[in-house]
Specification:
Blueprint lengths: L1 H32 L3 E5 L10 H16 L2 E5 L6 H11 L4 E5 L4 H10 L4 E5 L4 E2 L5 E2 L5 E6 L1 H15 L4 E8 L2 H17 L4 E8 L8 H13 L4 E5 L4 H11 L2 E5 L11 E7 L1 H13 L6 E5 L6 E3 L11 H15 L9
Helix pairs in contact: 2-9, 3-4, 5-6, 5-10, 7-8
Length: 345
């Protein structure tokens, strides 16, 4: 009997130990699930633009996979829906809330001021100015993420100038705004650095946000340029650029993608893509929050910070000789070293 009681006690104690371990494991899982909560609100065009928004989404998903965060995203409609989406995420207690695109600048500022204990970030944040013209800094809990688009555009402009057979290249922008002017300015500067006599034609799809989601307009503008002797077009127009690629296929010409590697949209007709690494910026700002080192203020990503660049891989290496690649890499190094100052206007 005593032996039976002894065995019973041992089994009981072992079961209690395993039960404790099981509860502890369960708490750990719950703790992991309750880690950093990140909410992201997309720009005009939403997911599936094969460009700007998809790059942001890639950064969010990479953070979810590698950092174990809880992630949510919203595709808003027009106007006040953007601010409503940000406010919804803030009210639900998300630790970091990201607005993708300059159009969120005021909305992020407003909501961040109402929720000072939460962190916010805005891709392409536009600084406001006071009456004297002095730039006003964002709230302390806002990371204003900006890119040196002109630097990456300089490189693809130089590449276009080295590859063109007609000495006529084109640029198609989405919305006619200062942000897209940076892409155009850098592209022109890079091309002119290679060939001061090169001809560059520019067109814009419109003056509202819809200019970033109008492939028909993109195709129309691109066909016009190609028919006028241009053989390479660089677009900075979001989903509108899908029309540029269709025109390139129809005319057997070349195009240059933007923001993400867009080769798959027109294999064989994409010379390269100017990489604006929104995914890198999104991942980095999330990682800062995970490691409790988030800081508000302006964050700038250029070539030196691996924030912009261009695609060279197995898909397009047949279009770019070693000699041409060497020249582009030399220009890139000069930009990093400060020997070339790329204009943004």
């Amino acid at each position: 009997m005593k032996k039976f009681i002894k065995i019973f006690l041992i089994v009981f104690i072992v079961n209690v130990i395993f039960l404790f371990i099981g509860l502890k494991s369960k708490n750990t899982i719950q703790s992991n699930k309750s880690q950093l909560k990140v909410g992201l609100v997309f720009d005009v065009g939403g997911r599936g633009d094969k460009s700007f928004n998809d790059s942001a989404y890639a950064g969010l998903m990479r953070a979810k996979e590698k950092l174990g965060i809880s992630a949510e995203y919203i595709e808003p409609g027009e106007g006040s829906d953007r601010e409503s989406a940000l406010r919804l995420l803030a009210a639900q207690g998300y630790d970091l809330i990201i607005g993708v695109g300059f159009i969120f600048s005021d909305d992020v500022t407003n909501v961040a001021n109402e929720y000072p204990k939460q962190s916010f970030a805005c891709i392409d944040y536009v600084l406001k100015t006071d009456e004297s013209g002095k730039e006003l800094m964002p709230p302390k809990n806002v990371a204003a993420i900006k890119f040196k688009e002109e630097e990456g555009s300089f490189l693809v402009g130089a590449l276009a100038a080295l590859i063109t057979k007609t000495s006529k290249i084109g640029f198609i922008g989405g919305m006619d705004i200062p942000l897209i002017h940076k892409f155009e300015a850098g592209y022109k500067a890079g091309a002119l650095a290679i060939n001061p006599k090169i001809k560059i034609i520019s067109n814009y799809a419109g003056v509202t946000g819809s200019a970033f989601k109008d492939p028909a307009k993109g195709k129309e503008l691109a066909l016009s340029q190609y028919c006028n002797g241009i053989d390479i077009i660089y677009h900075a127009s979001g989903a509108t650029g899908l029309g540029v690629f269709e025109a390139a296929r129809n005319m057997n010409k070349l195009a240059i993608g933007v923001d993400s590697d867009q080769y798959s949209e027109a294999p064989g007709f994409i010379l390269t893509s100017m990489m604006k690494k929104v995914d890198v910026a999104v991942f980095n700002i999330i990682n800062d929050c995970v490691e409790n080192r988030f800081e508000g203020g302006i964050k700038i990503f250029g070539i030196k910070e691996d924030g912009v660049g261009f695609v060279y891989d197995e898909n397009n290496k047949m279009l770019i000789s070693d000699e041409v690649l060497g020249k582009i890499n030399e220009l890139s190094k000069k930009i990093i070293d400060g020997k070339i100052k790329v204009p943004y206007l």
